[in-house]
Specification:
239 residues, seven-stranded mixed sheet, rRNA processing, Rossmann fold, EC 2.1.1.-
Length: 239
């Protein structure tokens, strides 16, 4: 079984249908990732099957927990090499995707990927969440924000919840240990949008790791003061 067939089976078992064209896009994405990784640090994982499990499939695990067919606008904050944003866009082409990263070279790579894969309605932005979230075009305009383990939850919430419209969701993708983070983030989640939180635990195939999806539903507007200016959320987290 090749990697595309493997991904197709895993996705189908979770209610995600992938066409031959979409599987080709995943393969091309892998090739571009490995090629660019030779000249810049995008991922420590380069084995093809591991990339398919720990990057591609892992990114798609959001889908069974949210009705992505009902989601229109999504922002992936601190997207890095494009996870989970690009795999979600490949699987759900209707999504209007913003990929945000603070490193210009990575943003250039993401633009190359979007062009090579023929992905429409993908905006790659070089910038910081603390600044972009104060722009009217982006503030509280997204149905879904995602972030994949770029900071602790109380910090991530300050970066991401201001992008989310009331009634929308923010999903923080985390590893095995999350309870302490959830406890310390309670005040931040209340301040930043009276967000409710549910946790989904899952195991990656073939024993490749435990994951937690921290799914926040935003129930109120984020105060205008948040996010605070660049660097402050990480240095002085809300506790």
């Amino acid at each position: 079984m090749n990697q595309g067939e493997w991904l197709n089976q895993q996705a189908a078992s979770r209610g995600i249908e992938l066409s031959g064209e979409q599987l080709d896009q995943f393969q091309r994405y892998y090739e571009l990732l490995i090629q660019k990784n030779k000249v810049m640090n995008l991922t420590a994982i380069t084995d093809q099957h591991e990339v398919y499990v720990k990057h591609f499939f892992d990114s798609l695990t959001i889908a069974p927990s949210l009705s992505l067919n009902q989601v229109e606008r999504i922002i992936d904050v601190g997207t890095g090499a494009g996870f989970p944003g690009i795999p979600l866009k490949i699987a759900f082409p209707h999504l209007k995707l913003v990929l945000l990263d603070s490193l210009k070279k990575r943003v250039g790579f993401l633009q190359e990927v979007a062009t090579a894969l023929g992905l429409k309605q993908v905006e790659c932005i070089h910038g910081r969440a603390e600044e972009l979230a104060h722009q009217a075009k982006y503030r509280q305009t997204f149905d879904l924000a995602t972030a994949r383990a770029v900071a602790r939850l109380n910090i991530l919430a300050e970066y991401c919840l201001p992008f989310v419209k009331v009634g929308g969701h923010f999903v923080a993708m985390k590893g095995a240990a999350v309870q302490e983070e959830v406890q310390e983030a309670k005040q931040a989640l209340h301040i930043l949008g009276k967000a409710s939180l549910s946790t989904v635990s899952l195991e990656l195939p073939e024993g490749m790791g435990t994951r937690h999806l921290l799914i926040l539903k935003k129930r109120d507007n984020s105060p205008k003061a948040y996010p605070r200016r660049a660097g402050i959320p990480a240095k002085q987290p809300i506790v």
